[in-house]
Every structure is written in structure tokens, then in C-alpha cells.
């Protein structure tokens, strides 16, 4: 794991050097770019691991739907992160595949139950966004109030579009597709990651993965 982490850090350093060479950026901006690159790389690795795992588990379509739902929502609302790229990738792979297995092993609820689930997911999301979004990390807090308001509004918009689409689908096609049920699970999970309990849950996994991979320190610091 140290070998992989070092290779990733080397890649990030090379990218940063290109930014410094061609753009006029100060140290604070370099720190932001570096953090963003780590986040993007860990996300890509996590997605690849999750999809490969889902392929062998036979839950590829479920996991892909949950990933897309969470990613769009999370891009504005934020949420809990692990302390290293490797941890984030493995944590995401495990959690998303567990959600995919949960959906694949349960009988698809009838239309009425899916409608109720979507409504509850919508209410839960609205509450968590209003109370916690955008949920940042202690190491990289969002200090701009204007940016916070903007991200919160966009989070509300995403959820309203999602819920409006589910209702429209119901009235147009007179039924609820499986993809709506799966996306509702994704909405509920991402909303959970915004809460203090969601952060504690992620932190527990993070500490366990640190011990497994013998990781010390905070790569996102």
C-alpha cells in the first residue's frame, strides 16, 4: 500500500509542478489543487475497484446506479471522507457493494412502497441538507459563506429534481422502475454521510483500515 501511495503522490507532485510552471498560483491555491487531485484520484480508484468487485458479484448495474446517484448528490453536499486515498477507495468499494448486494438480494417492493420510500428519502435529504450541508472535512473546511449557501442551494436543487423525476415517472408510466428504488437507496446513504453519525461511522472504518494497511498520518492534511 505504501508503494501505491508513493506512486500516487509522485504523480500529484508532477501535476502540481505543471500548474506552477504554467499558472500563477500561490501556496494556498497549490494546497487546494493538491487536495482536489487526491480526492479525484481516490474517487477514480474507488469507482474502478467498486465496479470490478460488482462485476464479479453480479451486481454491476445496481452498484453503477448507486454510484452515479451518490456522486451527483455528493458533489454539492459533501460528506465524510477517510484520512487517506487508499482508505477512501476501499471504504467506498465496500460500502457501495454492500448496498448493491442489499438491493439485489431483496424482492423489489411494490409501487406504493417505492413511492413511500422515495418520499421518505426526499424528506431525509431535505432535513440533512438544511442542517449539515455542505458537509466538509476538518482539514479542509469551506470558509466562504457565499460558497456554502451556493452549495446548499444546489444540493436542494439536485434532490428536488430527483424527487420530481420519480413523481413524473409514476404519473407518466403508471409504475415505478427498479432504478428509482435503487437511486432512493443511494440518496438515503449519501444523506446519512452528511450527519455526525455518518462521520463517526466513516471514522471507525478509517481507523480499522489504517491498522490493516499500516497507514500513519493524514494524507489529506
> Based on CA inertia axes, which overall geometry fits?
globular
Estimate the strand proportion. Answer: under 5%
Report the span from N to C terminus: 18 Å
Overall SS class:
mainly alpha
Largest sheet: none
Average pLDDT taken over every residue: 84
- The count of DSSP E runs of length 2 or more, i.e. the number of strands, is 0
Structural domain count: 1
Radius of gyration: 19 Å
Helix percent reads over 70%
Number of separate helices:
8
**Poorly predicted sequence stretches spanning 5 or more consecutive residues:** none
Series of secondary-structure elements, N-terminal to C-terminal? HHHHHHHH
Topology of helices and strands:
Blueprint: H1 2-22, H2 27-57, H3 60-77, H4 85-105, H5 111-132, H6 145-173, H7 178-194, H8 196-213
